[in-house]
Amino acid sequence: MKRSVLIPLGLAVGLFTAGLASAQDARFDVQAFRPLGAAQDLVGVGQTRPISHLSVSGGAYLNFALDPLVLVAAGTNSKSLSIVGNRLQLDIMASVGLLDWIELGLDMPLVMFQSSDNLEAIGTEGFIQSFTPGDLRLTTKVSIPGLRREPAGSGWGGALTFGMGLPTGIQDAFTSDGATTWTPGLMMDYRWESGILLAFNAGFWLRPPREFAGVKWGNAATFGIGAEVPIVRGWGVTAVSTLSGSTPLDKFPDDVRQIPAEFLLGLRWYSGLGLTFTVGGGAGCGCALTSPTLRLFTSVIWVPAITKEYEAIERFKEPPEPKTPLPPPVDPDGDSVIGEGDRCPTAAGPVENGGCPDTDKDNDAVVDRLDRCPEHPAGLRGREGCPLARIEGNKIVILDQVHFATDQDVILPESFPILEEVADELLKHLEIQRVLVEAHTDARASDAYNYDLSRRRAASVMNYLLDSGIAVERLCSAGFGRSRPVASNDSESNMALNRRVEFTIQPPVDGPLPACPPDPAAEQALPPVKQGKKRQTAEPARSASDAR
């Protein structure tokens, strides 16, 4: 089959010879300009907000397209055949809003005039029909929950759309697809407080398959992006622009994909009479069938003044009120903590302390809010505000454990500073009559072994304190083995807590000091009590002098 290659506005397509073309080419709707009927829609790109509940709008779009469907000879820019050379079309439109969530609309296209060459080359003797209806379009828009923007609001918006085209046009006149078509889609947009709107549309145009001039024409993906920018918002004057188009979902393997697209720019006026006027124009990309060389359009959409949609448009025209600057924060003390958050509004302090000055009761240079021991100065060797040793209740509390060589009663040098501070506390507090040095172990090994090890370790600590200048009558020692755990012996960390030395302050007495308390190890060594005899008295615990 002989085929001469033709280029419509820059894209190579095939034009069959007259006899063959008439048998194979099927005509379709070439109108790519499909305006929307709401006053604030962006010509052919929709914005997501449905018109207000029970509001109506109606009007018309008039557009002129130059060369929407022409063929040129291959290798040249000369026009070979003008199939639809010029077209003047009127779209009569109406819309209604329901519940502020749904918008229903219709569009009845009427081709007022169109011209062509003799179409004998594509199978029909004579010229294209000039005056003809197009396919009636029914449209629906439904807001997406969570993305329904209020009429005067800003932010994101989202909507689902669905359209149906009824074959009311004339297929031979390129104003109909000859069958029912469907257009599901999605709209997303964002409006700034300044009134600027940016909208995105995407969807499908489901239509019967056709082949024309060697190009597959049928189901297509549609796209659109539009913007509206207020120029004089108080007068309702804005600029609108759109880029929209489609691309067939199927093509012949060796063909270039058709992407008919148009860029349009217009000027809009929301008048106070409920009439919205838009005028503008643009051009096609010159890269596909149905993409015109030039398009001019004008429209008028009427919204009755008694409807909520009229009120919404009037509110849109009102410039946003300038935001009143907040009064300077009240901060009389200049500490950057303001209002109710400042617990001390007349005295400067850090944020961490609620705006109050930091205090240091023990004067150890660690403020009280960070001092774990606010009543006890840390001293030179303390940590986190705590000294290595301090008196609390009936205990001399130490900041760290006393460490011994493994399974021995030898004190490691790292514990010397702690024991020195214990001795210092005893030398400063002579009112303390006696301290019991207790040693405890974990649960490993036998009772007898642990009692013996703890007894020897307690004696080693007591001897260190004696060497530090503590009087012998002020100290006693005892080993408790594993009989008094402070944690379960089920982990290394817990067993480390049980291996400890404690310093217990004995209650004061009047007169001579009594003997040291019994050593638990001595109690364990008692023989069993026999029937009919008194239990033997346990051997007294060793005195301090015995320990040395």
From TrEMBL:
Xref: InterPro entries: Bact_OuterMem_StrucFunc (IPR050330), OMP_bac (IPR006664), OmpA-like (IPR006665), OmpA-like_sf (IPR036737), TSP_type-3_rpt (IPR028974)
Signal peptide: 1-23
Domain OmpA-like: 392-509
UniProt keyword terms in alphabetical order: Cell outer membrane, Membrane, Signal
Subcellular location per the Swiss-Prot or TrEMBL entry: Cell outer membrane
Name of a matching Pfam family: OmpA
Protein name as annotated: Outer membrane exchange protein TraB
Species annotation: Archangium minus
